[in-house]
Amino acid sequence: MKSRYVVQLFMSTLLLGGLATGIIGFIVRWDEFQPYFTDFDILKILSTLFWFIGVGLIFSLISQMGFFAYLTVHRFGLGIFKSVKLWNAVQIVLILFVLFDLVYFRLRAFGGEVTSYLLDPAIILVVALVVAYFKAKQTNREAFVPAVFFMIVVTTIEWMPVLRVNEEGWLYLMLYPLLLCNGYQMLILHKLNQKSAQEKKPS
Questions:
Q1: Residue among 65, 61, 68, 60 at smallest CA distance from 16
Q2: Which of 23, 71, 76, 121 is 20 to 30 A removed from 170 (C-alpha atoms)?
Q3: Cα distance between residue 127 and residue 67, in whole Å
Q4: What is d(CA 33, CA 43) in angstroms, rounded to the nearest whole number?
Q5: CA dihedral defined by 54, 56, 57, 63, rounded to 10 degrees?
């Protein structure tokens, strides 16, 4: 892919992460920041918004590092297993393992009811299936499992810093921008690759 498309992917994902976190931040932590709006304190609203956007840029960078790391791992996996079906089977096992761990290890670490830990994996799974469906529809059926793997396993790894803290405000403040950025990158990459390939063809 040409460098200008790499820059385009980087900048658009960065912008998405910043703006998404700026909006999501006020939503998931509304109880904390509602007084700013009821008092119409513009200075505090803007300062908080800029802070959320800055945090979102960091989330976006984490997302992009995870995405390009996965592209390398994916090629590495295909090279080791020599078969798309076998590599997909390995990815499915890892997907199930991660979804189980999102419930089991958090339950052991923080206690409480098991049902309280089911929502987050369910959200990630639903988003992953939706993104994978459109990815496979736009490319080919073999892209479905890798897309689900990336959206679940890699997102969870990227989400790990706040998972260890288990503070609800931070959990969702980071999770939703990561899902948006990861889904965007997954769905836009092949389009940029196609544009780059077309430009390389002799006229």
A1: 60
A2: 71
A3: 16
A4: 13
A5: 160
